[in-house]
Design brief:
Keywords: Signal
CATH superfamily: Extracellular Endonuclease, subunit A
Number of strands: 12
Protein name: Endonuclease domain-containing 1 protein-like
InterPro entries: DNA/RNA_non-sp_Endonuclease_sf (IPR044929), Endo_G_ENPP1-like_dom (IPR001604), ENDOD1 (IPR039015), ENPP1-3/EXOG-like_nuc-like (IPR020821), His-Me_finger_sf (IPR044925)
Oligomer: single chain
Strand order of the largest sheet: 1-2-3-4-7-10-11-12
GO molecular function: hydrolase activity; metal ion binding; nucleic acid binding
Number of domains: 1
Strand content: 15-25%
Length: 313
């Protein structure tokens, strides 16, 4: 087992990071209404601890993110630009929510496909922008070489490290990779940035392509009418089901959405949201205020009154 001193070194290394996986959302706070993230959502499971470190060389450095704090605060970055914020549950390997400003005026469209991963979930010292599997593997390989993390040890192999830190494409079984921040609410590069595995969770296929898709379209085409800005947070309620018996990736019991519509001075005009069970018989319930949605979510998430999605909307 990793000793307490080694764990302390890992945490100190993480706290010194000023990249895109950090202890806060400072680099992407404009994704939230009044620059205020969701509060009171303390439900993330601890980061999985590598059970077998016997005989490993330099595990504190070579497994530096395996004992990082959970949840992870991700400012989703593609290239040199920040596009949205994600609170990522290390223990369940799913996002708890993604927050963004909708592109109200832009032509909606799905750009790219879900290919990206977050290298800094593997090691805080890796590059901050999203990368596909080949690029991620290359960067992990460089890290291994520079830190003498010999890949003859299974725990140091590239795919093992990537899959330990986040869900891989093959970990979703029969479920769809359901977007929290949907590609269709953005255009061009912003749409491409949503195509990361840290922005998707297992979603029932019929729900994803049916009632939830219809609600996302309604949110873009109808509910945003008359808004100068539309702040959106989409999240999940973690469930009791896992994709496989090894409990690597959790299957949410519900998907939820909240929005805050503001005028050209960023003053709130209205709020609302939606909630739907993650099943093939899902019926999406809409709410005319975020307050009503929060009341139901506090019950489902088992959190107290400190849980608030928006600050004053």
């Amino acid at each position: 087992m990793v000793t307490l001193s080694l764990l302390s070194l890992c945490l100190l290394s993480l706290l010194g990071v000023r990249g895109e996986v950090a202890p806060n959302f400072d680099n992407c706070e404009d994704s939230f209404f009044r620059n205020t993230p969701v509060s009171g959502l303390k439900i993330a499971l601890p980061t999985p601890i590598e059970p077998n470190t016997q005989g490993l060389v330099n595990p504190a450095k070579c497994l530096s993110a395996y004992n990082a704090a959970s949840p992870a605060y991700i400012c989703q970055r593609n290239g040199n630009n920040y596009y949205f914020a994600t609170l990522y549950d290390h223990g369940r390997r799913i996002p708890l929510y993604s927050a963004y400003q909708m592109d109200i005026e832009g032509v909606p469209g799905r750009e790219g496909s879900i290919v990206y991963y977050e290298p800094q979930l593997v090691h805080p010292d890796l590059p901050p922008e999203q990368m596909d599997k080949i690029e991620s593997s290359r960067e992990i390989g460089k890290y291994n070489q520079n830190n003498e993390c010999l890949e003859r040890s299974p725990q140091y192999q590239r795919k093992y490290k990537l899959g330990w830190s986040q869900a891989l494409n093959e970990n979703f079984g029969s479920y769809d990779r359901g977007h929290l921040n949907p590609a269709g609410h953005h255009k061009e590069d912003a749409s491409k940035a949503t195509m990361t595995h840290t922005n998707v969770a297992p979603q029932d296929r019929k729900m994803n392509k049916g009632p939830w898709n219809r609600y996302e379209t309604r949110l873009k085409d109808v509910l945003s009418a008359g808004c100068s800005k539309m702040y959106v947070v989409t999240g999940v309620v973690p469930g009791d089901t896992w994709v496989d018996q090894n409990k690597r990736v959790n299957v949410p019991s519900h998907y939820w959405n909240a929005y805050c519509c503001t005028d050209n001075n960023d003053n709130p005009l209205r709020s609302g949201g939606a909630l739907g069970p993650n099943t093939n018989l899902s019926v999406v319930t809409e709410y005319n205020s975020v307050t009503d949605l929060e009341t139901e979510l506090r019950r489902l998430l088992n959190v107290d009154n400190n849980f608030n999605i928006f600050n004053g909307c």
